[in-house]
Amino acid sequence: SNSFCTLLAMAEAYIVVVNNCDGRRYKMVMQNDLGALTIVRVKRYLHSATGIAPNAQVLTFNNVRLADDATGSEVGLFDGAVVFLDKEPDVQETNDVHDPLPHRSSTQHGRSQASNGSCHSTAVERLLRDQQGQLHEIRGLLERVATGATLSPVPATVASPLERLGRNLDALAAELKLGSPIELDHNSTAVVPFASPRDGSNASLLLTFDRATNRLYMYSAVLSRLPTDAAEKVELYETLLEGALLGREMAGGGVGISTQSQLVLLSISFDMFHVSDAAVAAAAAPFLAAFDHWTHKLERFAGL
SUPFAM superfamilies recorded for this chain (predicted)? Predict the structure, then answer.
């Protein structure tokens, strides 16, 4: 619907920056188009977030080093794009944001040579610590075998969030009998049509995966227009808050209001680090039942 398109168009755009020095991730949110975002501005943000001076930062995207004066549109940044941060070795850090090595190509392929400096050293130290820990565990296991102790079964390899996301989407497609897999677009969003369990009317279920937090959001509009009368608005808010008490009518999720888009959204989220492969599919039926409950309950507010 137009309301959904308006809501999605107004959604905040963001990029994710992965610090190769320590593995930390930073989410930079923009209210405006990412095309106008300058790399200089990204470096200033990262300076406050990481403490690495702008002139010592090396940013790469799609294996290309980003020049300070480049813009998001010039380098192809999009909503949810992942940029990598390395620290330039042997550079006296200042707040200047010009290229510290003007004779190097600004379109250097592969990971920046900065990764051979302090970030690389940090990574090597971390790897050595991990290997030492593994050796300690192996010695402990050998000692237990030598003494005849019973070994616990080795746990299976833990699936990555993206692997678990794919399995959950496949299970959800089967649960909803879609006949085709659910695929996320370049904004990590999918619109899944479904028939209302109550009256068979057409509705849309939206799925959005946030790569920065590895959470999958499932949501749908239960009211597409807010009442204009102040008293009716108060009654609507009271109705929603009463239903949200302890989440008893929200199928384990929650409800939110967009006054600009005139929408009331029912939503639930899943942490792809910790849920089972069938968690989203298992939540689908209760969620759709809650959707029916709230669309029916809020019908009287639709025309006010």
Answer: Type III secretory system chaperone-like, Ubiquitin-like
